[in-house]
């Protein structure tokens, strides 16, 4: 019995139905449904904006990294090119210094307004060049009474490398040419396989 009424499972005796939820009007239910839909829509928009912002940030970071790498490799290539050109000038005219000051190279390749922005990139270039012991050497030179750090190109020119390789190849070929004279006169093996006797 509840509130003066008896519960029954016999449908013929049912006079009223009970529900755990309060009876609501259609307008009230519609208002609640609209509120839930609006809340879910706002959450969806916020989530989408967050994902788009993250994707934009990652893309921007990736693009900046690619640009920095491109600047790094361009600087590295241009430094090697300048040093090689200086070395070639020195070979043609020994009065010219075979090295270039590091600060002078930086001023040639990086404008004054970009030097601060590319400071880390330039440090990477210096570190990489200093590790190339076989190609470029670092040393200190007295320039107008001031000791400065310089780079010197040490790698042999392509013409010299090719001539050395050709000379070595010729020597190796000559070493395997057999003599026309037999090993000894006692051994009668020379020309023993010839058929034009």
Produce the secondary structure layout:
Blueprint: H1 26-92, E1 99-101, H2 102-109, H3 119-131, E2 136-143, E3 146-153, H4 158-175
Antiparallel strand pairs: 1-3, 2-3
Helix pairs in contact: 1-3
Protein name: Man1/Src1-like C-terminal domain-containing protein
Transmembrane segments: 41-58
GO molecular function: chromatin DNA binding
Strands, total number: 3
What characterizes the major β-sheet? 3 strands, antiparallel
Kindly report how far apart the N and C termini lie: 137 Å
**Proportion of residues in β-strands:** 5-15%
- Structural class of the secondary elements? mainly alpha
Give the radius of gyration: 44 Å
Report the CATH topology name of the domain at 67-156. Answer: Arc Repressor Mutant, subunit A
**Helical content class:** 40-55%
Order of helices and strands: HEHHEEH
Description:
- This protein is mainly α and 197 residues long.
- The protein has a domain at 67-156: Arc Repressor Mutant, subunit A (Orthogonal Bundle).
- The protein is built from 4 helices and 3 strands.
- Strands 1-3-2 form a 3-stranded antiparallel β-sheet.
- A hairpin with a 2-residue loop joins strand 2 (136-143) and strand 3 (146-153).
- Helix 1 (26-92) packs across helix 3 (119-131).
- The longest helix is centred in the first third of the chain and has 67 residues, at 26-92.
- The N and C termini lie far apart (137 Å).
- Residues 157-167 and 173-179 have low confidence and may be disordered.
- Its main location: nucleus.
- Pfam families: MSC.
- It is found in: Nucleus inner membrane.
């Amino acid at each position: 019995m509840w509130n003066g009424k008896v519960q029954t499972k016999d449908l013929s005796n049912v006079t009223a139905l009970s529900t755990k939820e309060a009876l609501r009007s259609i307008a009230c239910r519609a208002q609640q449904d609209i509120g839930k839909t609006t809340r879910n829509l706002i959450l969806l928009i916020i989530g989408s904006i967050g994902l788009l912002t993250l994707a934009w940030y990652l893309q921007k970071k990736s693009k900046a990294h690619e640009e920095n790498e491109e600047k790094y490799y361009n600087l590295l290539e241009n430094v090697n090119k300048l040093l090689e050109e200086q070395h070639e000038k020195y070979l043609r005219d020994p009065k010219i210094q075979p090295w270039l000051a590091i600060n002078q190279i930086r001023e040639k390749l990086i404008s004054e307004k970009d030097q601060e922005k590319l400071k880390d990139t330039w440090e990477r270039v210096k570190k990489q060049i200093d590790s190339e012991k076989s190609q470029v050497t670092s040393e200190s030179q007295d320039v107008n009474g001031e000791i400065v750090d310089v780079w010197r190109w040490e790698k042999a020119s392509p013409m010299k490398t090719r001539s050395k390789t050709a000379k070595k190849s010729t020597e190796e070929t000559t070493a395997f040419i057999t003599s026309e004279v037999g090993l000894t006169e006692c051994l009668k093996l020379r020309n023993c396989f010839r058929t034009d006797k």
